[in-house]
Design goal:
The protein has 687 residues and is mainly alpha-helical. Among the domains are: 129 residues, no CATH class; 71 residues; 157 residues, no CATH class; 107 residues, no CATH class. The longest helix is centred in the first third of the chain and has 67 residues. Keywords: Coiled coil, Protein transport, Transport.
């Protein structure tokens, strides 16, 4: 222990704690000499015994550096001191101290090479730091020389060059901003040219460029202006879309659809389009009817413009009813044709897009989005067919029921039926509808009209029969009811361009629809004047003969009336009394009867009177009405049978009745005929 203390004294160390806290410079630290370390090793010790001594040291000695050993040992002294015990305890502490010193010395000798190596590294580091200090000193000296060598002018040039580069960039930005501010003029020109896709593309590019320069204060106002311009473009685009409803133009509609696609509002455009079609139908019918009402009123009173469409239809006069109906159907046809062509455009466009996608399927996301839009548009258009047609039916129904047609002329009423029938054909081709609304409205008008018409015809027939002289009506031997104007419809097929009873059978193929036929132009509701061939009839023989030669031969053969019985020279002979009227018989009358007798005997011609011909014409008109108005065909054929019953009863009354035989029950008529005559008398005559 004394050796360790002497070693520590030579090194200049006071205590372990002070040596740690007050480390002296490296130069003051001295390594123990080999002789001192050898003296410690020369003491014979058992390593195991020495380790046991070290282990016997109390742990409190290793607690911390601030532990006071002296105080600790003094406090452990017993109250009664014994010299022998103190010496024994002192010897024990000395042994422990010697063991610790020996262990420390061994560790120092063991770590000495590493200590020497580390000391050399510290020395090398000290040398490097000294060299770095010299380099820094030289650098500062050279910096001072450079600072003194460069003037402010040189540094000013560098600063100006940097400022120049910044100003060039600023100039480019200002020019771009100036161009953006002038785009409104170009946008206005493009809108006037109806280049909606180009205008939207330019506006979107300007907005993108404006977002790049948003750090400038003037750009905020420009952004607001561009947004207002874009909204204005959308408004004009909506107006352009509404024009499609009345006059479809492929190029115009293509531009509009491209514009909406750039805006990403394809579905919104389709919703707006259907709203415009509905509005177009309402505005079209209102303007057409309003024009005729004001024309008939003869003034420009604005009270009609404030009326509802239903009330406006009641102001249509009978003279303007048919032209107004024709113009109404023509206007509605244009709207439906525009819708049909719109669907055609989308079908062709979808096929083209599908072909492009199949050839290039890179953008899967965009393809799915476009496919969704196409399906939405297709379903919307298909659903809109029935809606459009329903609106058309309701408007036409309101017009039809707004006027009483019972006093119309037959040809005028037939024309109304033709137009409505043609319109129902359009509806069936348009959306496959049976047009129940139109059928019901025209059925009501037809029943009302036909009751009045039939009542009038019966009254006319009564007048014909009362004034009928029952003279033979001269007709050609080739006479047929199909030659009469009323029966022309039986030989002719229906046509959308003319009356259903006036179109040649070979005019239009049944496989071609109205929309395909008139897609390029024209209108199936155009009023066309009937040709002369339809109006003229060549059924009467010239003077009761087929030719002039027959008439001459008749005069030569029957020029003398000597062989004519006296009663045949009279104008009229009562078949019941045999009395003749007082009026004398003229030679011309007698000659006419001779010609009729000749015609009856020599020529195989039908036996007809004027009344018979009139009844046949009425039957033709009734059949024509049945052909057009199938829903009321049963009522029409019932009325037609009344015509025949009335004519049959009149013929029987004039020629078949024999009061003498009938009073005795020996009439010539059969029981079946009597039953029929009784039925006619009860149901028709006695009413």
């Amino acid at each position: 222990m004394q050796k360790i203390k002497s070693l520590m004294t030579r090194q200049g160390l006071r205590s372990p704690q002070e040596s740690v806290n007050d480390l002296s410079p490296i130069e003051n630290f001295r390594i123990p000499t080999k002789e001192e370390l050898r003296e410690l090793h020369e003491e014979p010790t058992d390593p195991q015994a020495q380790q046991e001594i070290i282990n016997s040291i109390e742990e409190v000695y290793f607690s911390n550096d601030s532990f006071d050993i002296v105080k600790y040992e003094l406090e452990r002294l017993p109250p009664v001191l014994s010299l022998q015990e103190l010496e024994e305890y002192r010897d024990k502490l000395k042994q422990q101290q010697a063991a610790v010193s020996k262990k420390v010395a061994d560790l120092i000798l063991e770590k000495q090479p590493a200590y020497v190596e580390e000391l050399e590294r510290v020395t090398s580091l000290q040398t490097g730091l000294q060299l770095a200090a010299v380099i820094c000193t030289d650098g500062r000296r050279h910096l001072n020389i450079a600072k003194e060598g460069f003037t402010q002018t040189s540094l000013g040039l560098l600063a100006n060059q940097r400022k120049r580069q910044l100003l060039i960039g600023l100039l480019k930005s200002l020019r771009t901003i100036k161009t953006l501010q002038r785009t409104d003029v170009r946008l206005s020109e493009m809108l006037e040219e109806e280049d909606y896709p180009g205008a939207i593309q330019l506006c979107l590019e300007c907005q993108k460029a404006a977002s790049t320069f948003k750090h400038y204060s003037c750009i905020s106002e420009l952004n607001s202006k561009l947004q207002d311009t874009l909204e204005q473009i959308e408004e004009q685009l909506d107006v352009a879309l509404s024009k499609i409803c009345k006059n479809f133009d492929i190029n115009h509609y293509t531009k509009v659809q491209q514009a909406y696609r750039l805006l990403g509002k394809t579905q919104t455009a389709m919703d707006q389009l259907h709203m415009h079609f509905t509005q177009a139908i309402h505005n079209t019918v209102f303007q057409v009817v309003l024009g005729y009402v004001e024309l008939c009123a003869g003034n420009t009173d604005t009270k009609f413009q404030k009326l509802q469409y239903k009330d406006l239809c009641t102001h249509i006069t009978s003279d303007s009813y048919i032209p107004c109906l024709a113009d109404l159907c023509k206007a509605l046809w244009e709207v439906m044709l525009s819708y049909y062509r719109t669907m055609q455009w989308h079908e062709n466009h979808d096929q083209d897009e599908a072909a492009v996608v199949s050839s290039d399927g890179n953008n899967v996301v965009g393809t799915e989005e476009n496919s969704f839009d196409r399906n939405y548009v297709k379903k919307k258009l298909e659903h809109g067919l029935s809606r459009i047609w329903q609106d058309v039916q309701l408007k036409v129904k309101t017009y039809l029921l707004g006027t009483d047609l019972s006093n119309f002329k037959y040809d005028d009423f037939i024309f109304v039926l033709d137009v409505i029938s043609r319109l129902m054909q359009v509806g069936e081709e348009f959306c496959g509808s049976k047009s129940e609304v139109l059928q019901e409205s025209i059925r009501k008008q037809s029943v009302n009209y036909f009751k009045t018409y039939h009542r009038t015809r019966l009254e006319e027939l009564r007048m014909f029969l009362e004034n009928e002289t029952w003279e033979l009506c001269p007709v050609k031997s080739s006479f047929s009811i199909l030659q009469l104007h009323e029966f022309k419809f039986m030989e002719q097929s229906r046509s959308p361009s003319v009356s259903p009873s006036k179109q040649p059978a070979s005019a239009v193929s049944s496989t071609v629809t109205l929309f395909e036929q008139y897609c390029a132009g024209g209108n199936p509701f155009e009023i066309q004047a009937d040709s002369k061939d339809d109006e003229t009839e060549d059924v009467l023989a010239s003077n009761g003969y087929e030719s002039d030669e027959q008439e001459k031969s008749a005069y030569q053969e029957y020029d003398s009336d000597s062989d004519v019985p006296e009663e045949l020279k009279r104008d009229y002979v009562d078949e019941q009394t045999g009395d003749a009227p007082i009026k004398s018989v003229s030679r011309e009358t007698l000659r006419s009867r001779k010609r009729s007798d000749y015609n009856l005997n020599k020529v195989n011609a039908p036996i007809l009177t004027n009344t018979t011909l009139n009844v046949i014409r009425l039957v033709g008109k009734y059949m024509q009405m049945m052909n057009i108005l199938k829903p009321i065909a049963f009522d029409v054929i019932h009325f037609m049978s009344q015509l025949f019953d009335y004519y049959l009863y009149a013929v029987y009354t004039f020629f078949g009745r024999n009061d003498m035989f009938e009073s005795t029950g020996l009439g010539l008529s059969s029981s079946r005929l009597r039953t029929t005559l009784n039925r006619i008398q009860e149901s028709l005559i006695d009413l």
